[in-house]
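Backbone-to-sequence.
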């Protein structure tokens, strides 16, 4: 390494350390194996609660790793802003689902249901402490770093006192012409009880003096900000010299709120936001899942209250009044130094120099020249390629186009008889959905298994179901009680008087937007056994009867969980027989107790285990007498790591599976999932090198979990920089 390169490396290391310490306040990782305070096993031979990391605290730790990216000065400025808003969005969901669930458990008896034995009340107290510190740090990053740096690039969010007279005049005109007509102030008096506010909506509480038109003494009013209005408003170029200067809707309303209460004196105006329980409770014996779900979606907007956000200048009497109204205590209050919803601050600025360098996803070599062919001939027919060999795509480095185009070719191919497809997250504008609709209109037998309960995409999926039904497709909603999370496409084609099947299996959703931001694998194959297995999954989803036997795939909730345990057992047996035992698992989360315990057993036997876990990990690695041979790392970078890959050395007869399933109870036991083998040796090596070893070498975006349950960023120090995602961009997209 040259002197200049070494200086750059040291500078980046310093930036990383500052970012980590600022957000996490970390202590150095232990230099030796961690020692549990108690025993590994209890008197019954079971692993003790101390052997496990709490799921909710692990989730929160992941959110902190996301927040660190907003403070990473080596990232482009607008990307740091993006991570700041992603942290807000993630925390919203954390409160809506996880914290709401803990509050319900506390209400129902405060009994422990977590692997580590913590009671809901204990967890809520810990979460409150960590979350309050994290939110304070989030707004410190915003105010002390992001906003000043944006201003240096002539991107500003102007406060009311920073506006010029001409800008104030424009804002006043904007308020009266665009905002006032859709505002509905609600007084709080005996005839107008406190309004029922929508989940996460922006509202203002206004304190007043004087009498209204009816002679009533009104002291308080609520002004909901309409969701139809933009939260960030760009000032006209003629008033800013063409610079990107904006005002927040909250500032516009605050400045002119007195216009809503003529003849009265406004003595205070403060924005606030209420977060509610957004989890859906759907009975297992419903007659019509779509209708039942539509009813539940209305309830989500008005679920139980879990969090109140106010600005720091909101006086105590005001926020105490709100807490009392919502029946919340002060631990559920978050006073923030800025807008109460940072997610809505994100604007699509046209400033490429402040973003990651753009890239063009590559078309996988096997399909080049076919990416826009919807009516193929023999030389451009994707089926002819897949019939000869398996084809692997690695998103976002490879384009999603072939997935979409295969459906269009199937829709227009007179030899195609039927198409079957699972849909978890999509939209009516999706080309996947449009191609399926076109196929149905063209007389193909189209079956769409749509998972209506994909969280926060329920309404969109209902619209997709209606659209496909109108086009003539057969739409089913899977199995009540088991979300259909598998990513499967099956195409049935008549060739030379015989039936041949083609399938695409993936680790990620059939969603073009996700494919640009999430890392995922997709396999195109005509392997007869795999296609037969996929056919069997669709039969189970649309029909009835016993599970069909599988030749190649593992299928949750029937064979995947037991199959994983058996493959781990195989590695244990190999080591006991004096052979090598090695496991590498890459997934988004590991929470399922039996899998964790089996990995502990494998570690104790001497199996070498590497886990690449993006977010939640309840397994405690590097603990003496428990998990010395387990290493856990997480990659948080430009793209959201989403691939699920399972590798087992198997005494030289290596096994590698890609999957839709994480190592979670819900995925392995309560969802329809598929793990599919990579049988082509070249593709096997490609995934092993690019998708596993490449990430185990990362020393830029990687974090390692220690025995205390703390995540420590991997620092390259004097070693060559290895950024796994950047390596793939350079290798595949150059």
């Amino acid at each position: 390494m040259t002197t200049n390169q070494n200086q750059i490396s040291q500078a980046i290391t310093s930036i990383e350390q500052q970012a980590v310490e600022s957000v996490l306040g970390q202590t150095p990782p232990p230099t030796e194996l961690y020692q549990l305070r108690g025993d590994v096993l209890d008197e019954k031979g079971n692993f003790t609660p101390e052997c496990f990391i709490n799921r909710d605290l692990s989730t929160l730790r992941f959110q902190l790793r996301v927040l660190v990216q907003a403070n990473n000065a080596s990232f482009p400025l607008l990307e740091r802003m993006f991570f700041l808003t992603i942290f807000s969005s993630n925390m919203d969901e954390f409160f809506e689902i996880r914290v709401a669930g803990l509050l319900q458990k506390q209400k129902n008896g405060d009994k422990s249901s977590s692997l580590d034995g913590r009671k809901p009340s204990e967890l809520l107290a810990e979460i409150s402490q960590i979350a309050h510190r994290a939110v304070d740090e989030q707004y410190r990053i915003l105010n002390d770093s992001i906003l000043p740096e944006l201003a240096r690039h002539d991107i500003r969010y102007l406060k009311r006192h920073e506006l010029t007279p001409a800008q104030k005049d424009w804002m006043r005109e904007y308020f009266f012409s665009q905002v006032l007509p859709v505002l509905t102030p609600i007084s709080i008096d005996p005839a107008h009880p406190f309004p029922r506010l929508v989940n996460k909506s922006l509202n203002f509480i206004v304190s007043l003096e004087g009498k209204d038109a009816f002679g009533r003494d009104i002291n308080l009013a609520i002004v909901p900000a309409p969701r139809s209005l933009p939260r960030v408003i760009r000032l006209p170029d003629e008033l800013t010299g063409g610079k990107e200067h904006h005002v927040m809707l909250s500032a516009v309303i605050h400045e002119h709120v007195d216009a809503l209460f003529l003849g009265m004196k406004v003595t205070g105006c403060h924005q606030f936001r209420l977060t509610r329980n957004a989890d859906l409770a759907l009975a297992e014996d419903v007659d019509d899942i779509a209708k039942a779900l539509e009813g539940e979606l209305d309830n989500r907007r008005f679920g139980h209250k879990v969090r109140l956000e106010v600005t720091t200048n909101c006086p105590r009497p005001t926020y105490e009044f709100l807490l009392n109204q919502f029946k919340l205590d002060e631990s559920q209050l978050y006073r923030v130094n800025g807008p109460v919803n940072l997610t809505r601050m994100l604007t699509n600025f046209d400033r490429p120099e402040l973003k990651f360098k753009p890239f063009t996803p590559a078309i996988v070599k096997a399909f080049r020249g076919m990416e826009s062919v919807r009516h193929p001939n023999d030389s451009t027919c994707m089926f002819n390629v897949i019939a000869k060999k398996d084809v692997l795509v690695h998103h976002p480095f490879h384009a999603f186009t072939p997935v979409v185009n295969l459906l269009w070719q199937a829709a227009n191919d007179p030899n195609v008889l039927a198409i079957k497809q699972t849909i978890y997250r999509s939209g009516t504008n999706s080309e996947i959905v449009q191609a399926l609709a076109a196929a149905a209109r063209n007389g193909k037998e189209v079956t769409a298994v749509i998972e209506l309960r994909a969280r926060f995409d329920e309404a969109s999926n209902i619209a997709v179901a209606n659209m496909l039904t109108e086009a003539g497709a057969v739409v089913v909603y899977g199995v009540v009680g088991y979300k259909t999370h598998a990513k499967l496409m099956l195409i049935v084609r008549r060739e030379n008087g015989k039936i041949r099947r083609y399938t695409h299996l993936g680790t990620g959703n059939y969603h073009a937007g996700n494919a640009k931001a999430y890392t995922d694998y997709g396999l195109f194959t005509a392997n007869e056994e795999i296609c037969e297995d996929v056919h069997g999954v669709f039969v189970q989803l649309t029909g009835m009867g016993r599970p069909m036997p599988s030749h190649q795939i593992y299928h949750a909730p029937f064979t995947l969980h037991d199959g994983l345990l058996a493959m781990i057992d195989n590695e244990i047996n190999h080591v006991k027989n004096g052979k090598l035992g090695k496991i590498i698992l890459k997934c988004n989360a590991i929470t399922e107790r039996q899998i964790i315990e089996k990995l502990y057993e494998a570690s104790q036997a001497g199996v070498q285990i590497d886990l690449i876990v993006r977010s939640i990990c309840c397994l405690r690695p590097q603990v003496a007498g428990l998990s010395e041979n387990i290493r856990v790392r997480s990659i948080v970078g430009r793209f959201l790591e989403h691939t699920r890959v399972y590798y087992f050395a198997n005494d030289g007869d290596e096994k590698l599976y890609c999957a839709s399933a994480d190592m979670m109870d819900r995925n392995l036991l309560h969802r329809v999932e598929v793990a599919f083998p990579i049988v082509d040796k070249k593709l096997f090596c490609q995934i092993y090198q690019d998708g596993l070893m490449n990430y185990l070498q990362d020393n830029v975006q990687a974090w390692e979990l220690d025995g205390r349950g703390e995540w420590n960023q991997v620092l390259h120090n004097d070693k060559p920089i290895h950024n796994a995602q950047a390596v793939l961009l350079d290798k595949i997209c150059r």
